[in-house]
Automatic annotation (TrEMBL):
Name of this chain's protein: D-isomer specific 2-hydroxyacid dehydrogenase, NAD-binding protein
Keyword tags: NAD, Oxidoreductase
InterPro entries per the UniProt record, alphabetical: D-isomer_DH_NAD-bd, NAD(P)-bd_dom_sf
GO molecular function list: glyoxylate reductase (NADH) activity; NAD binding
Organism annotation: Stigmatella aurantiaca (strain DW4/3-1)
């Protein structure tokens, strides 16, 4: 596919778009967040890049985009972009699945350390120019339960394993992780309360899909240990 014109639904001042601006000079680039800002570029573009979940704007633009051949989202999830006309169109839609796994894995580790080492207290004492000793805990030997063991869940497990944590995983298809060297035990979804009850840290890393709705409710929250930490990146 020959690309002559790239249309980007994004804030024109976004710094992370700089690599796109450095594309081959022969490609025309139009960036904006409104129909007015995009102008006649809508009719000319072959590729549409989405950096904002503007479903209604996309719904307005799609009938005008006669030359469009490909839509790509910079988000991992695309449920907020879908509507019937788009679903029924022949346009391929791709996403950024896996791109954010490393960063979110780092965040999960940071969140666990935040509570294990009571970093909030350290920052408060620093602001008050005082020092009082207090007890913190190690991550070593603690259990991380992961509800939704996909790219993000595995990235978090890899980092946690480096701290000698025990890893429990719960997913729709547990057989896919049966041989995973990072996981100590895999649970099917109907046994999630058993996994939750054994976890010191519980990570929610489920994609937004029909099969993942209402997996955390009152019963699951009551199954948590009193000291457990709940981390949601799903």
């Amino acid at each position: 596919m020959k690309v002559e014109h790239l249309l980007v639904l994004a804030n024109p001042t976004s710094s992370h778009l700089e690599p796109i601006r450095r594309l081959t000079p022969g490609i025309r680039l139009t960036v904006g967040l409104s129909e007015e800002a995009l102008g006649d570029a809508v009719e000319q573009a072959q590729v549409l890049l989405l950096d904002a979940p503007k479903k209604e704007l996309l719904r307005t633009l799609l009938p005008r985009a006669k030359n469009l051949r490909w839509v790509h989202s910079l988000f991992a999830g695309v449920e907020n972009l879908l509507f019937e006309e788009f679903i029924q169109s022949p346009l391929p839609l791709t996403n950024a699945k896996g791109v954010y796994s490393g960063s979110l894995g780092d965040f999960v580790l940071a969140a666990m350390l935040f509570f294990a080492k009571d970093l909030r207290r350290l920052v408060r004492q620093q602001a008050e120019a005082r020092w009082e000793t207090f007890q913190s805990v190690e991550l070593r030997g603690r259990t991380l339960g992961i509800l939704g063991y996909g790219d993000i869940g595995r990235a978090a497990a890899k980092r946690a394993k480096g701290f000698d944590m025990r890893i429990l995983a719960c997913r729709r298809r547990p057989e896919q992780s049966a041989e995973d060297p990072l996981v100590d035990e895999v649970f099917p979804l109907h046994r999630r309360q058993e996994m939750i009850a054994a976890s010191d840290y519980l990570l929610l890393a489920m994609p937004h899909a029909p099969g993942t709705q209402r997996l955390m409710g009152e019963a699951e929250l009551k199954a948590l240990k009193p000291h457990a930490v709940l981390i949601n990146v799903g």
